Structure formats: C-alpha cells, structure tokens
Amino acid sequence: MFIRRLGCFCVLLGFSTTAMAQDFFVYPKNNQTADQQQKDQSECYVWAKGQTGYDPQNPPKSYASQPVETGPDGSVVRGAARGALLGEIVDDDAGKGAAAGAAIGAMRRRDRQRQQRQQQDNYEQQEAARLAEMRSRYDRAFKGCMEARDYSIS
How many domains are contained in the chain? Predict the structure, then answer.
C-alpha cells in the first residue's frame, strides 16, 4: 500500500515539475539522477512560490475593470433640448438649435467613450505588466534555487 501511494505521488510530482520548469532548460552539472533533479525542481518550485507568492501552475487572474459603456446615455437628447432652448431664445429657431445641440451631445458622448476605451487600454497594459513582473520574480527565484543545487538553467 505504501509503495502504491509513493508511486502515485511520484507520478503527480512528475507532472507538476514538468509544468513548473517547462520554460527552462535544466541541466545537472554533477550528474544528478533524473529522480534527484525531479525532487530538486519540486522543492525549488515550492520555495520560489513561497518567496514570491506566484504559482505558475495557478497564475492569478487579471482583475477585470469596468466595461466600457457603449449604450445611449441621453447626451444627444439633452444636447438637443439645450440647443432647442438656446435656439428659441437667440433667434426663435428651436429646430436649428436642437440640431446643433444634438450634434454637440453626440460629440461629447464619443469623447467620453474614447476616454473610457483609453482608460481600459491603460489598465490592461498595467495589469499585463504586473503579471509579467510577478512571473519574472518567480522565475528568478526558481533559477536561483536550482543553481544553488548545482544545475545549469537557461
């Protein structure tokens, strides 16, 4: 029974160490056995994960920001109403004022949507940089641990 459990543990360990070190070429400098290398990789994975808080087998999800609003927001109607009122006051032509106000309202809406898209793009770039930095810190920790155990890592 113990041997069977140990066998299952080794199979699981083998799967996880492959996933942990898939981005690296690991070469034993002192003729370490494959079993020893697998053990060292597993221990370095646990250590690097503990040091950095990053798990390459379960990377953090990117935080989603608010979706960009694309539906009607009333700016065209409000602009038309303001323009109609202003047109009526200025030259007794509410129709021209309404048309001009609607156009201004539509432009304001497009400007807000463009700003929201730019904010979303900026957020996504910052989030990608944050996740890349976390992965980089893990990689450095893992490599350092493996090099301390006398492996060549590239």
Answer: 1
